[in-house]
Design a protein that fits this description.
Layout lengths: L1 H16 L3 H20 L8 H9 L15 H12 L5 H19 L5 H17 L3 H18 L3 H12 L21 H31 L4 H5 L1 H17 L1 H7 L1 H15 L1 H7 L1 H26 L7 H22 L1 H7 L9
Helix pairs in contact: 1-6, 1-16, 2-5, 2-6, 5-7, 6-7, 6-15, 7-8, 11-13, 11-15, 12-13, 13-15, 14-15, 15-16
């Protein structure tokens, strides 16, 4: 646990200490490389490590079936290339981490407080997802590339990135309608109506996976995994409420990203009924909303600090303190956190 807390606190320290834009970019690049090595070289660390290892060992290299006919062909292709090259499973994690952090860096570096945004992504998106759910982690990374293309009005790139995300985790395909919104303004009512229609679509896309997760975590008796989802949902819904509270400020400061942030803010509120329907579904869908959540919270000290005499530093420590508390609770009470992540091991030192 100390290793993870140390990394998070180091990221928070750097976010507060490095204030120049040029300095932030250099430090961000170094941090991303360091995290890619940390995540990519892990050995027997992460709840899904053994499951992915088993799949790799017994993967049947059948070339008669079309790649597109396979479920989640992107991950199959990545695994197939590594296996054909004669490399071990550990290089699957290295390759996945390189893709994940490369795309994450491409998304984060455009934020005025990029280091804080990276720090806020670390507890959930890096530890809980990238170090365990490799396929969905890469899917989220491709989604961030789609979000960047969205802000540039590149509809075809948005489609390609979401399709790439869906090739690693089919649930990401629920975001394909974003392409129809590129370069257009939509009323809140229309967005809410679209989200209402897409909720059952998300459930259908994730139904088979939800059964697996239910058996693996809920029936296995990890109460913190199931009940802990409410804390993850609360973090995202809370950030969405903050965005709505300071919506005009965000519109002025981030005109290119505002429509996208507004859509993801409204989508965040749909996690509440999703949680009531299926806890694990809400938990898994929440991962896709974390990039926008981190964007909002990382911008908040600069936007809301001057309002009502509030101090920007106070907001900085309040936000980072909430995530520190989240990490302490998760590592302290989740059986999977202790059994899957502690101690951290790397094949560089194994």
């Amino acid at each position: 646990m100390i290793v993870y807390l140390g990394i998070y606190l180091a990221l928070v320290f750097l976010a507060g200490a490095v204030t120049s834009a040029r300095g932030q970019q250099w430090v961000l690049a170094l941090c991303v490389i360091g995290l890619a090595v940390f995540v990519g070289t892990r050995f027997d660390t992460g709840c899904d490590f053994d499951g992915y290892l088993y799949r790799f060992r017994y993967m049947f290299l059948d070339t008669s079936q079309s790649l597109l006919d396979r479920p989640e062909p992107g991950y199959y292709l990545l695994t197939w290339l590594i296996k054909v090259a004669g490399l071990s499973y550990l290089w699957v994690n290295v390759a996945a981490a390189a893709v994940f952090f490369g795309l994450l860096w491409h998304f984060v570096r455009r934020h005025p407080n990029a280091l804080l945004m990276l720090a806020l992504m670390f507890p959930v998106l890096v530890i809980q997802l990238a170090m365990s759910g490799v396929r969905q982690a890469v899917a989220v990374a491709f989604l961030t590339a789609a979000l960047t293309a969205f802000t540039r009005n590149q509809r075809s790139v948005v489609v390609l990135c979401i399709l790439a995300a869906g090739s690693f985790h089919s649930s990401a395909l629920v975001f394909l309608p974003l392409a129809l919104m590129v370069g257009r303004d939509y009323s809140t009512g229309r967005v809410l109506g679209a989200l209402l229609l897409l909720t059952p679509v998300a459930y259908v896309l994730m139904q088979e996976r939800l059964q697996i997760y239910h058996q693996r975590y809920i029936m296995a008796g990890d109460d913190m995994y199931s009940s802990g989802a409410i804390y993850r949902v609360a973090l995202i819904v809370g950030s969405a409420a903050v965005f709505e509270l300071y919506r005009r400020r965000f519109a002025q400061a981030f005109p290119a990203q505002f429509t996208l942030l507004h859509v993801f803010s409204l989508a965040s509120f749909f996690l509440v009924p999703a949680y009531l329907v299926n806890t694990v579904m809400a938990h898994r869908l929440a991962y896709y909303l974390i990039p926008a959540q981190a964007f909002v919270l990382a911008a908040l000290p600069g936007l809301a600090g001057p309002l009502n005499g509030r101090d920007s530093r106070l907001l900085f420590f309040a936000i980072t303190g909430v995530y520190l508390a989240y990490m302490l609770v998760w590592f302290g009470f989740s059986r999977h956190a202790q059994s899957c992540y502690v101690p951290y091991q790397s094949f560089l030192f194994h």
